[in-house]
Structure formats: C-alpha cells, structure tokens
Design goal:
alpha/beta; Aspartate Aminotransferase, domain 2; Aspartate Aminotransferase, domain 1; 8-stranded mixed beta sheet; 3-stranded antiparallel beta sheet; 14 strands
Length: about 375
C-alpha cells in the first residue's frame, strides 16, 4: 500500500548471521574473545591499518577505554563538539574530566578546527573529533594542533566505518578511535563497538583495561603462567554471539556501503531543486572526505518551521527525525561541562536539521514519497504543511 509506514531505520540481515551464531555455539564459544571476535578484529586491523582493534560491547565502552588510556584525570579538560551523542562526553566525565564544548563547522557539522586552539588551557588533556554522518573532521589541522600542545586525539568514529579522510580510515588517524555497530549504524550487531589503537605502545594496557584490569590475554597467549589484577578496567568485551553476527556483516561491508550510497545519492539528486529554491541545504562533502552514506540529512532554511515539516512527514507515515539536543544546553552538559564562547552553528543545526529514512532495502518509491512530502511541506505557508 502507498501509505505503508516508512521507518527511519530497519536493521538488516545479510544472510549468514544465524548460521555463524550456531557455529559459535557448536564451537563451545559463548563468552568473548573466541573465533569470531578474532575474525572481526583482524578485519578492522586490515581495513584500517590500526595497530590493534579490540571489539567492545558498545562504542560507549570503546570511548570509556579511550578515556582511561588517555590518562584523563579529575580536573582535566577535554575539547569536543556539543553537537554529538552523550557518550562522547560521558566517557570523560566518568574520569572526572570537564568537557569543553566548541562550535561546529556550518558545512559538515563537525568540530570547527579554527576554534580549538582558543579553547585550550593548561588543563586540556585531549581533543575529541566526532565524524558526523561519516564525514571526516579536518584531521590534518586537528592533529597539528594536538602535536603542538602535546594533546591526545580521540576519534569518535561511531558513524565512520569504511569512511576515509585523504585516504586514511576514520578511527585510525588520531591516537585512539571508536566504532559503533549499533543497529542504527551501517554495519551492525545489535549492540557492539570497537576500540582502534594506533599507537603500539598503548596495546598492552588496552588489553588489560578491556579484561577487567587483568593480564588475562597474556595468560591465554602463554606469556605468563597465571593472570592477575594489573590496572583499572572493566568487562568491555562483547559475547561471542554478537561477534558472530557482526562477522556476517563485515564480510559484505563493502556491498552494504555501496547500497547505502545508492540510496544517499538518490536523495541528493532529487533534493537539488529544493536547495536551489533556498528551502533547504543538502549535506556538503569536502573533497578530502570519502563518506559512507551513514545518514542523509537536510538543513531547513531558518524561516521554515521544522516541527510543521516533521508533523507532515509523520501524518504520512514517515519516520523522519531531528538529531542531537546540544550537550552544552542539556542539564548534565551545564553541570559537568562548559561552552567555549557562543555556539550559533550548533544551535541552528539543533533547530533546523532533519534526518530522512535511509536503510538497506528502502525503495525508490519509498524515497519518492519522502521527497514529495518534504517538498510539499517546505513549500507550504507556515501552519499549512500537508
């Protein structure tokens, strides 16, 4: 039926997930770090070039590990965008650090590299680069600033699997990176994530932190005759069934990305007219960035009532969404962090951005329905969106 609901996202299954889960069970491997975990970690290492990939139960866990590895302590400050998910800040707040929020660029909605240096104080410990929508931050400038001030760079590449910046894989440009395999991402395992370690000197401690603070990995490799408590840590590893599901997805990750790119480009071509009319702005992809079609968003013109547009899409059974409530304006953000100056671009994005349905299996007919409804709503007089 033409009015059949169009979800914002639909978790896709590529074919071998259940077979691999069964195989893991037959191998007697249900806890973490079994055959499928190793396959997944090897894939990430080979595809990104990172020194070590460690599968985690979420991207949040990977970011918390990164905060520990960065030796963030109470009183430290960590520079990051406000336009991001709460885990970006929480990982460092849990270590007693204070997030310092800076504004984002108007083109990519990534942290504005020109504003970072002015936010640095003697207490600054790290910079977090969040790659929004799988489009890279301006990493050359960020790395240069970090080197000049002796700061750690953590990449929140939750949305960045198989995306690149000047040929480099997102997540393996800074000192540490984090991926997400949540069901809303491109490559999924329900929940799940991965820590990417670029600096080989951090690998041994990363393994310890991930295994409850013990050297259990060294024991299983035969490097020690028993394992014991060595450092702070937690149980950051996922179960093997999660890894088995993920391995089926990673095997065809390129195909998944290509299919998403087809859907992304269809939106992009069909919405050019509305951009020409000045009713919205389509995503901007800098020449140095190879994105992964993680999501398709539009920035409505300020005179257009976003809620009226969202209501029109909802009435027509389409699940389009806004995105983040800026962290600097949230209760916890005001309690635990601070904004460096005004954040006008962040505030505008929070008011005017709409994410459109995009998932493996969405049809051109469904996309046409979304585009037609969006077009009618943005062309309507205020209060009359259909």
């Amino acid at each position: 039926m033409s009015d059949k609901p169009i979800p914002f996202n639909w978790p896709h299954v590529v074919g071998k997930e259940l077979a691999y889960i069964t195989e893991a069970q037959k191998l007697g491997q249900l806890a973490g770090d079994g055959t499928f975990t190793k396959r997944c970690q090897d894939w990430v290492e080979q595809r990104t070039g990172c020194s070590k990939a460690l599968l985690t139960h979420s991207c949040t866990a990977a970011l918390e590990m990164a905060a520990l590895l960065a030796n963030v302590e109470p009183g430290d400050e960590v520079i990051m965008p406000s336009f991001t998910f709460v885990s970006t800040a929480n990982a460092f707040v849990l270590r007693g650090a204070r997030p310092v929020f800076v504004d984002v660029r108007p083109d990519t909605l990534n942290i504005d590299e020109h504003l970072i240096e002015a936010a640095i104080t003697p207490h600054t410990r790290a910079i977090v680069a969040v790659h929004y929508a799988g489009v890279a931050c301006e990493m050359d400038a960020i790395i240069e600033i970090a080197c000049r001030h002796n700061l750690i760079v953590v990449e929140d590449a939750a949305q960045g699997v198989l995306a690149r910046y000047k040929g480099q894989s997102l997540g393996n440009i800074g000192h540490l990176g984090a991926y997400s395999f949540h069901e809303t991402k491109n490559v999924i395992s329900g929940e799940g994530g991965c820590l990417l370690v670029r600096d080989p000197a951090l690998i041994a401690r990363a393994e310890i932190i991930r295994e409850k603070g013990t050297d259990r990995n060294r024991f299983f490799r035969g490097e020690v005759d028993k394992y014991t408590w060595q450092d702070v840590g937690s149980s950051f590893l996922p179960g093997e069934l999660i890894a088995a599901f993920l391995w089926a997805q990673l095997e065809v990750a390129d195909t998944i990305t290509q299919r998403r790119m087809t859907h992304w480009e269809y939106y992009h071509a069909r919405l050019a007219e509305l951009e020409t009319e000045g009713r919205l702005r389509r995503p901007i992809i800098p020449a140095a960035c190879q994105h992964n079609a993680h999501l398709y968003y539009v920035m409505l013109s300020p005179e257009i009532d976003r809620q009226a547009v969202l209501d029109a899409l909802k009435r027509n059974n389409m699940a389009a969404l806004f995105h983040y409530v800026p962290l600097h304006s949230s209760p916890a953000g005001q309690r635990y962090g601070r904004a460096h100056g005004m954040l006008p671009v962040t505030d505008l994005a929070a008011r005017q951005l709409i994410r459109l349905p995009l998932f493996i299996g969405i049809t051109e007919a469904q996309q046409d329905r979304v585009i037609e409804t969006l077009t009618a709503a943005t062309r309507s007089k205020p209060g009359h969106a259909k």
